What we know:
By secondary structure, this protein is α+β, with helices and mostly antiparallel strands. The chain has helices at 3-26, 88-93, 127-166, 170-181, 188-217, 221-233, 240-251, 262-272, 315-331, 347-357, 373-376, 402-413; strands at residues 30-38, 45-50, 62-65, 70-77, 82-87, 99-102, 106-112, 121-124, 285-287, 293-295, 304-310, 336-344, 362-367, 385-390, 395-398. The strands form 4 sheets. Strands 13-12-11-14-15 form a 5-stranded mixed sheet, with helices on one face.
Amino acid sequence: MNLSVFLSLKRATIFFLVILAVLSSEAQSFVCTIEGSTTDRETKKLYLVESGADIRTMDEVVSIPVVNGKFNYTWKGERQLFLQLIPDNQYADGNIRAAYFITENQHVTVQMGRADADKVIVKGDGKETRMLQRCQQEIDAVYAPQMAAMDEKMDSLDQLLHHHMDSLTTSEQEQFLAEYHSPHSNNPLIAAYRQTEQAYRELIEEENLATAKWLDAHPCMYGLFYMKDRLAISKSQTDALTSFLIRSYQQTYSKKYRQHPYHASIQSSLQSLTLQPGNQYIDYAVSLPDGKQAALSTLFTGEIIYIDLWASWCGPCRRHAKALMPIYEKYKDKGFQIIGIARESKAEDMQKAIQKDGYPWLCLLELNDQHQIWLKNGISNSAGGGFLITKAGKILAVYPSAEETERILLEYLGK
């Protein structure tokens, strides 16, 4: 064997071993034991789900019983995931203070309590969890005091508003509420409340950006999780946090943990950020009524198509769909088509809603986020949304009202 052939074989072997090492390092088995307590006597069980997941769309949810204020569970899997523990009573009330941790070979202790009073404390001894805790501790050292001061100011203003309302007659209260919801109010109390609200939002944005910068400087598994969750709820590529996360992902995180499935979620979120009027709509797999799968674009028959993303448990979604019904009847023979896609955990829930509301268009089922359609459309944390597009896929409007939909149809299809 000559030297050049030998060196080529040696390089190929080294490359193979490196790839094998990367794959084997990410394809592991993890055992994470969890134990803890809660001071909330109303909590009877805890839901264990991935951060960002919607329990309403899940067929099965891990449920951990709470007995005498204590709980324990052993998680086993082949991926490091970012999970959250959600108290059942807080989930039902819509006021949640969850516990977050990373599933790795470690023991996790959790202290929980009432959503309105007690701080959640999570301690773990895993490498990635220690990075998560270090990030939170360093960010909290800067922003927790500012948040506490802002909370106190908001509470004080809130009390003043309620005290002022209590001093008014019924008609005066109605007038005050109308002024409160008006963007042009000159009331000094309302102005102070709005200014504080705006300052609060800006402080939260500043804290989020500081977290993203910390994770960019200290790449870790929590950084990948943080990007997945934040990009999933981003609505614009141009805001400071999103633009920084995109740059950090492209320059650093896209090269780390290459085999982790969260990369696919991040890529879907990045693509969904382009779904703006004037841009091209995306194509994706859907389940047909007969159970077969097809590309959504193969179902287009109209010149203008409304993709209605809804759910049986979403009241505003159903009211929006019903408002579209007279417009659909008016324009269906002129090239207007509606395709509904329902996000459900049970197929019968969609059928019951259709029978009750009487939607006359094709309705498809997205069962337990099978095709990740909500994530691909950039509304993963939402019950519904919609896109008005041309047959060629150009986006005309994002979740337009019935009135705006008809205005666009008049422009494209005429009376």
